[in-house]
Amino acid sequence: MTSTPIRWGFLSTAGIARKNWQALLFSGTGSVAAVASRDQAKAAAFIAECQREAAFPTVPRACGSYEELLADPSIQAVYIPLPTGLRKEWVLRAARAGKHVLCEKPCALDAKDLAEMIDACRAANVQFMDGVMFMHTRRLAAIRNVLDAAELGTLRRIHSQFSFNAPAEFLAGNIRMSSHLEPQGCLGDLGWYTIRMTLWTLGYLMPERVSGRILAAQGRSDSPGAVPMEFSAELFFPGGLSASFYNSFQTEHQQIFIASGTSGYLKLDDFVLPFHGSETRFTVTNSSFDVDGCRFNMAPGRREISCAEYSNNHPTAQETNLFRTFNTLVAGGSPDPHWPEIALKTQKVMDACLASARNNGTPVPVS
C-alpha cells in the first residue's frame, strides 16, 4: 500500500479511460491529476462527466496537449489508451519524461516497436505494463491451484473465444475499423486476450509455430485497407500440446476459455470481463464413463469454484487490483520486468499469427 497516492495523467479521453478513472479512485492508492486531449474543452468535459460519477477530492487539470501533461513534474504515471498506431511515439516520450506507463493493448504495431518501447522504459527506470485487467483477478490464483494439483491430468488442448457483434456505427466510424490506427483489427483488440490467457495457463511457454486465418476483413470508408473482422489460429507447443483461438467483430458476446487434459477440463464462460455479480466462477469437470450391460452411463463430475470478488466497478474488482499492483510498483521504485516480458511474448505470438494469416495460413515459427 502506498502512503501517498500516485499521481496519474491520462493521455486521451478514450471510452475505456472512464472505467480506469473509477478503478483508480477505488484503488485508494492513486489519483487522476490531469487528462490530456488535443482539444482542451474535450478534456474538461471528460473530467466533469467522470467527476460527477466518481469524484476525486481535487479536480484533475484539463490539458490541451499531450506534451503539456508530460511536462508536468508532479505526474508520476501515465495511462495511454491512444490508438495502436500512435502508441509507440507517446510511450517513448513518456519514458523520456520519467513517467511510468500503463499501455492499452495491443501495445504496438509489432514486436520490434514494442521492444523499443520496453527498452526506453527500462533505461528510464519506469514501469511498463499492459492494460489486461483479468491478469489481476483473484480467480487466476484459484485456477492455478487446479492446474498445479494436476486435477486435469496432463494438458493437451486449450481453446478460447472472444468476440462481439459490432453495430453499424462501429463498422462505419470506430478506430478499430481503420488500418491506419488499428491494423490488427479484431486480432489486436480481442486476440491479445485469448493469446495472453493461453500463455498464462502454460506458464508463458511459447509455441513453436502458429497458423492463422483471416476469416473476414473490412474497413471503414476512410481506411487505407481492410482489417481482420474475424480471425482464427492454431498454436503448436512442444510435446504435442496445441491451442486454438477465435476472435470476431461479427459474432455476439463470447469470452470462453477451455483447458483440456487427460483427466478432465476447466472452463470459464467469462474470462475477460466476469459476468456481473459479487463472485467470479469457473468449472472443473472430471467426467467418468461406465458400461454396465446395456447401460452406458456418463457421470458429469462437474464442480463450480467461486471467488469472492465483484466483477467490475468495485474496490475488489480486477481493474482496481490492476492499479493497486501498478501503484505499489511505482511507490517501491523498482520496476517489475515480468510485466513487459509477458507483453512482448503476447505481441510476438500475435505478430506470427497475423503473418501466417497474410500468407494463407502457412505455419510461422515463433522466435
Structure description:
The protein has helices spanning 16-27, 40-53, 66-70, 84-96, 111-123, 139-148, 168-173, 185-201, 318-332, 338-357; strands at residues 6-11, 30-36, 61-63, 77-80, 100-103, 128-130, 155-165, 209-218, 227-236, 242-248, 250-261, 265-268, 279-285, 288-292, 295-299, 302-308, 364-365. The chain is of the alpha/beta class and 367 residues long. It has two domains: 6-132 and 317-341, 3-Layer(aba) Sandwich (Rossmann fold); 135-312 and 346-365, Dihydrodipicolinate Reductase, domain 2 (2-Layer Sandwich), CATH 3.30.360.10. A nine-stranded mixed beta sheet has the order 16-13-12-11-7-10-9-8-17. A six-stranded parallel beta sheet has the order 3-2-1-4-5-6, with helices on both faces. β14 (288-292) and β15 (295-299) form a beta hairpin. α5 packs antiparallel against α10. The longest helix has 20 residues, at 338-357. The radius of gyration is 21 Å and the shape is globular. The model has no long low-confidence stretch (mean pLDDT 97).
* Beta content: 25-35%
CATH superfamily of the largest domain: Dihydrodipicolinate Reductase, domain 2
The overall average pLDDT, rounded, is 97
How are strands sequenced across the largest beta sheet? Answer: 16-13-12-11-7-10-9-8-17
